[in-house]
Amino acid sequence: MKLLYLFSFFCFISHIDAIAQNIHKNRVVILTDIEADPDDTQSLIRLLLYSNQIDIKGIVATTSCWQRSNVAPESIERVINNYDKVQGNLLKHESGYPTGEKLMSLIKKGLPIYGMKGVGEGMDSEGSEWIIKILEEKDDRPLWVSVWGGANTLAQSLDKIRKTKSKKEAKRLISKLRVYAISDQDDSGIWIRNNFPALFYIVTPGDFYAEATWTGVNTFVKGIDNSKISNSWMAENIQQAHGPLGAMYPDVAYGVEGDTPAFLSLIPNGLNESEHPDWGSWGGRYSLYKPAFSKAKEGKSIVEIAPETRAIWTNTNDLYIPAVSKDYGRAKVPDTVSFNDNKVTLWRWRDDFQNDFAARMDWCFMNYEEANHPPVPVLSHSDRLTVKSGKLISMDALNSTDPDGDNLSYWWFYYAEESTYKKEIVLDAQNIHLLKFGAPKVDKKETLHFILKVSDKGSPSLSRYKRVIVDVIP
Predict the structure, then answer these.
(1) Domain 374-474, architecture per CATH
(2) pTM for the predicted model, two decimal places
(3) Residue 201 φ/ψ, nearest 5 degrees
(4) Which helix (H) or strand (E) holds 438?
(5) What is the third-level CATH fold of 23-318?
(6) What residues does each domain of the chain span?
(7) H/E/C letters for each residue in 120-171?
(8) Packing angle between helix 126-135 and helix 152-164, nearest 10 degrees?
(9) For residue 275, how many other CB atoms are within 10 A of its CB?
(10) Residues sharing a CB contact under 8 Å with residue 457, sequence separation 6 or more, in sequence order
(11) Rounded distance between C-alpha atoms, residue 346 and residue 343, angstroms
(12) How far apart are CA 214 and CA 342, in angstroms?
């Protein structure tokens, strides 16, 4: 019996180690105006639950238009102190969770100065110097800067790089940066984009939140079930009886987790491809273009706004038809309603990432056998296929598994907005592991994106994905 126990324990440890080792970890530095709004604390709690899958390189307390003259690193410390209390239990579910001590060492301060007043000669800060230090490390991975408040700490880093490095070295360092900003919360965002035209930058410019893709995280959408952003759902699944992190998760003041989209796309779930914002992810989908500037907005913004001078990654639309469950017959079918706007690109995944968050909150206090863990989609073929025009396409995920032995559901769909072929592709039964259909007839090469979503029937139900890219040639 003892040998059997040891063997089972070894298999379990090998399983969770394999999960951690097979993950490509995105590097990220967080800029947060924590205490300007409770949502920064909410987002930081969620981020730490993925700290074994995202390589957090720094958490910098900054200012914003909502908090102009102070920074609050002590509030970051409070969250990490409570994370440290559950880190050991999280390790029962997946390996790689950093210690609280390690995360504490990553807390840095930006200047308690608003916007561009804090950029220039003599304006270096602990935070701006830290960004440069991380950029200079011998690591080929891009460095994401997740901007939850003002961006002037990053602006100071860029200003110093431009003034103190050779043109070649400055270009090399800046080419490693990736920015996802939650709108513009000071006047440094537009300055950065105008002065560093090669910098990879995702943003809905200005502070016009009603237009922003990221607001899909908490937008109430008519015609769908919005319960997973409700206060009652948060209380039951996150805040109450879920350990010290849940106990400190604050109630909503303005909008729940408005900063979370700035790192959702970095979570390795089979769908997210952070280098391809146009492919769509939990953090939304974006197109690269120079957005039009409306002078009607002038006078309405509390941050300085101006026309964009170059292309940025910004709002784009999805046409989305939800899948709905049925009690009889085919278990899941396309709905009879559809949605088409930029926020859809994010909220279409909302139930999935909320369930994922809830499961990880369970990990804070449950044993492995008590909690749910995500399924593992497995294709029986490559995720990049080539077929001739009009020929049969066959895709199969029969070998998908679930670590808890849960029953699995499948859902395949064609993501036209990510594809070069924009016409409808009719799929029959989309809720089975084997999908067969005829390739469209083409007279030039077309690239098609198909997404497989595999969901378990555990509680809460968890989903992972596979993306299959098909080149159809004449």
Answers:
(1) Sandwich (2.60)
(2) 0.94
(3) -145, 120
(4) strand 434-438
(5) Inosine-uridine Nucleoside N-ribohydrolase; Chain A (3.90.245)
(6) 23-318, 374-474
(7) CCCCCCHHHHHHHHHHCCCCCCCEEEEECCCCHHHHHHHHHHHHHCCHHHHH
(8) 60
(9) 10
(10) 406, 407, 408, 409
(11) 6
(12) 9
Token pair recorded at residue 13 = 């440890």
pLDDT by residue, tens only, the chain of 474 residues? 434 434 344 444 444 444 444 568 999 999 999 999 999 999 999 999 999 999 999 999 999 999 999 999 999 999 999 999 999 999 999 999 999 999 999 999 999 999 999 999 999 999 999 999 999 999 999 999 999 999 999 999 999 999 999 999 999 999 999 999 999 999 999 999 999 999 999 999 988 898 999 999 999 999 999 999 999 999 999 999 999 999 999 999 999 999 999 999 999 999 999 999 999 999 999 999 999 886 556 667 788 888 999 999 999 999 999 999 999 999 999 999 999 999 999 999 999 999 999 999 999 999 999 999 999 999 999 999 999 999 999 999 999 999 999 999 999 999 999 999 999 999 989 999 999 999 999 999 999 999 999 999 999 999 999 999 999 999
- Output phi, psi for 238, to 5 deg: -125, -55
Number of separate helices (H) and strands (E) present in the chain: 13, 18
CA distance 179 to 198: 12
**9/415 Cα distance (integer angstroms):** 41
Q: Which amino acid is at 247?
A: A
In the structure encoding, which two tokens stand for residue 49, read together? 């639950």
- Residue type (1 letter), 75: S
Q: Give the tokens for residue 14.
A: 């090998």
Q: 């809720």: which residue's tokens? A: 431
Burial (CB count <10 Å: 0-12, 13-18, 19+), residue 128: buried
d(C-alpha 367, C-alpha 92), whole Å: 7
Q: How far is CA 154 from CA 26, 127, 130, 304, 366, in A?
A: 18, 8, 10, 17, 39
Can you read off the two tokens belonging to residue 132? 């440069």
Strand, helix or coil at 59? strand
CA distance 180 to 178: 7
* R_g (Cα) of the chain, nearest Å: 23
Q: Give the tokens for residue 301.
A: 């913004």
- Both tokens of residue 71? 């920074």
DSSP type of residue 239: I
